[in-house]
Amino acid sequence: MGSDIFAPFVKHEDATYLDAAPASGRFAKNEGYLLLAWRKFRRSITGMIGLTLVTLLLLMTIFADFVVPSDPREPTLAFAPPDPISFFNKEGFTLRPQTFAVTESGELDPVTFQPLNSPDYDHPRPIKFFVHGYAYHALGLIPSTTHLFGTDDGQPFHILGTDKFGRDIFSRGIIGSRISLTIALITVTFITIVGTLVGLTSGYYGGVFDRWSQRVVDIFFALPQLPLYLALAALIPATAPSSVFLAFVVCVMAALNWAALSREVRGKTLALARIEYVRAAEAVGVTDRRIILRHILPNVISHVIVSITTWIPQIVLIESFLGFLGFAVKPPLISWGMMLQDCANFSVLGSYPWILSPVAFVLITVFSFNALGDGLRDAVDPY
Amino acid sequence: MKQNDIILEARNIKVTFKVEGGTVEAVKNMSFALRKGETIAIVGESGSGKSVTARAVMRLLSRRATLGKDTYINIGGQDVVKLPESEMRKLRGSRVSMIFQEPMTSLNPVYTVGSQIAEVIRIHNKVTRADAMAKALALLEEVQIPDPEARLRQYPHQLSGGQRQRVMIAMALANRPDILIADEPTTALDVTVQAQILNLIKDLKAKYGMAVILITHDLTVVRQFADRVYVMQHGEVKEHNTTAALFNNPQHPYTKRLMASDPKGIAKPLVGNPPVVLSGKDVRVTYTLKKGGLFNAVYTDLQAVDGLSLELKRGETLGLVGESGSGKTTFGQALIRLLNPQQGEITFDGARIDGLKRDQLRPFRARMQIVFQDPFSSMNPRMNIRQVIEEGLIVNKIGTSAQRLDAVQKALEDAGMPTNILTRFPHEFSGGQRQRIAIARAIALEPEFILLDEPTSALDLSVQAQIIELLRKLQRERGLSYLFISHDLKVVRALCHRVIVMQNGKIVEQGMVADVLNNPQTEYTKRLVSAAFEIAA
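Predict the joint structure of the above. Result:
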């Protein structure tokens, strides 16, 4: 069998396949950009996890009042530890999880003679779905008292304990997501619009305009962010209404952060402005405006979307950090940053570590948006 | 034929790639053998599986690829399919070496040329660094790089494309391999350099008695250098024979079609003395290069187009020829004002267009069009075919929506594409189909003049022949004038009436195509002509 491999060889076959002229050949299935991007996105596990988490997070934020088990503004026992959830009661194991109110047990501390607190095992409070609790307006419109879950008796129930005024931390965390995420979304909207516009024009027109606008961008890059936040926050009188303060925080964060996105968009635009399909458009006489809107913007927008998913968690982080330093929205508004203000005191933190739990909300938010961005990054260029 | 002559035997190579929603058979069934000291060529168009075959032999396939279970590859008595990766690594670069198409990216930019060659030597031999460097120097001498001692300490970016490919060859030869696999070694190089590299491989092969597997799409190269040829299409061998027998008597229809796809014929002579459509007089494009820093900046002017003139008549095709960097594209784009020349008189159909602003130019835009070299970057991936072709009509406010649709369909038909593709996107088409769509975009505006910037050089040979035929047909039917920029003199001979040869921004020779190509006057043109045609002789 060894030497016949050198023998001349012709494959015999029907000549019909040659007749198919290339121009009339079969084409791949008609697939738009979104479908292609989605197929690629589906392959990324982190991306899918991120997408699921972000969706849940947004749903949770929109229906925050429904999700929370207790009224976030109602004071109860201050610094109460998380209520234990148990499957056991006096009768033994049950399938229904239940919790126990903390009451005075009637015993005294043998040394200090202070009354001792302990769970009231005689009155288990079963945890159920769709229970009645405090009244609220779903989506700000529909009056309701139904909550996703809670104790049977409609009394406060603290999964993550309470803060210094005895308010339920878990409920506050969920309600707080509304302000925190709204701040992030509004800020990112500003960043995106300004950054994309400046980046597109600067990159497309180039020349002197590009040089000067990029020097302005440099100045914004060079601004020391932290002192500026603090100085500007100090400018606002303590009596100013929350809406003013909120608007102010948004403006400052947007002003300090649009520059990075504009630099990124400019770089992409610079490359696209010299690509051949843009030259071809010039050659048929397309105006600058149309080139920017029809040829460059659609090809840049995918990258902008990716950077939005990285900017949202950044803003959430900045907000929580400013809150920790004491520059957050004022009560009665609730934000994660504001909740973290309480953590600035070491002795409080040492005794009641559960007040740190807003960190978990921030952590989950940052992780889910970053994971989403990670998946999107690979998917936006499916060609 | 003695059995032990065979140093590489491959049977039933089958490679499948995992893709979204299934698998693709890149190589279906490929068997070949290689004797000591012989050159075989694996010929095929893009996507035929020839490079994948070579990578399968080297076991350099990507992770998404799997070899078929019947695949048997024997190199010098060793069954390499079952060889562990550590043994395979010893084989690669010592007994089998490979050079790649792209010399710009296959060298590491942060190491000197010398250290990269020395590394290859030291991986496979226990020698000191100094010895390895000495050997690297000898190798560079062998591949005939001018001033090899200086090159040793240079970085890849300081070398030209041809020199880099020589360095790649030196690396491949470093351990005296029995087999050299050359995967399109000259495709990325200028024509004159191409011939030098191929001759170098041929000399070295004779000197060391290597066997060479040459992977290429270029039949002229095959005829000149190979002993035997395997023609591949759709992942299988369609025909195999000795080079002489194959070229004298091709059997398989695909082989015949490949052979027939060399551009043929000449342009039909112009009748009478038609008027001049486009003329440029003393056109000059200068780029200012800056050297040094802020305080000791030295500005030098690079004359990309150095005061050139040309005239193009109605219905005429003028070839603009030169190697890369000769300024031919810059000249062409300056003539249709896609670039702004610093100086020069440009006239289109009797009207001066050199001083016009962008909006003043718009009336002329519809009348002069351009087709680019790369069909993959010349169409916006986010626009469908109708939008791509229709855009020129919309911005020039031609017709109603229904009339524009008719015009788009007519243009597609004339370009040889079906009209049911209007809602498809560019990425769904092959290179040749895209180039047809790009031509449709150009002719939809009913222009009088089209600048063709290497429209065929990114395409397979058989597709190239079809595009040339299409361009001829359109010229016949519409009386178009072409300015045809190319480095491929064969295509120029088939398509152009006159030709201008450019070098370093200057015109070195011009005249009728037959005169210039048959009887070149300058040394440069002679070199171009011999590189293009004489390899075949």
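The mean pLDDT of chain B is 87.
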